[in-house]
Amino acid sequence: MEVVAKLKFARLSPQKCRLVCDQVRGLNIDRALDVLKFSRKRSAAVIKKVLDSAIANAEHNNGADIDELKIAKVFADQGPTYKRMQAKAKGRGSRILKPTCHITVVLSDEE
């Protein structure tokens, strides 16, 4: 059985978010929550919220045993980029890119 939780349009860089995703992929739930709780990265808090949502989905919708769950897949895809302008010298403007990402967490109880 697989359970999915997604967060779309998170205001995080997908490249930075993938660093945290790689740390928790394949871990059981208790270990992954500890890694995310003590990580100093900004994206760790967001991924922890998505993981909590996936755990709640597994427990409520499927009646799964939380102790047997592990993270089967976790990935961060690139979302749309917000484009902004910032004033520069001599009346010019420069572009500021604000990336977004879509975070997906898949839990499974199979080995």
Please, could you describe this protein's structure?
The chain is α+β, with helices and mostly antiparallel strands and 111 residues long. It has helices at 14-24, 29-38, 42-61; strands at 2-10, 70-78, 82-87, 93-98, 101-108. The protein has one domain (2-108): Ribosomal Protein L22, Chain A. The strands form two sheets. Strands 1-5-2 form a three-stranded antiparallel beta sheet. The protein has a two-stranded antiparallel sheet with strand order 3-4. A hairpin with a 5-residue loop joins strand 3 (82-87) and strand 4 (93-98).
| Mean model confidence by pLDDT | 94
Determine the CATH topology.
Ribosomal Protein L22, Chain A
Instruction: Tell me what the CATH architecture is.
Output: Alpha-Beta Complex
Give the total of domains. 1
Please tally the β strands and state the result.
5
Helix content: 25-40%
SSE inventory with pairings:
Blueprint (H helix, E strand, L loop, with lengths): L1 E9 L3 H11 L4 H10 L3 H20 L8 E9 L3 E6 L5 E6 L2 E8 L3
Antiparallel strand pairs: 1-5, 2-5, 3-4
Summary?
By secondary structure, this protein is α+β, with helices and mostly antiparallel strands. The protein has helices spanning 14-24, 29-38, 42-61, and strands spanning 2-10, 70-78, 82-87, 93-98, 101-108.
Structure keywords:
111 residues, alpha+beta, Ribosomal Protein L22, Chain A, three-stranded antiparallel β-sheet, two-stranded antiparallel sheet, 3 helices, elongated
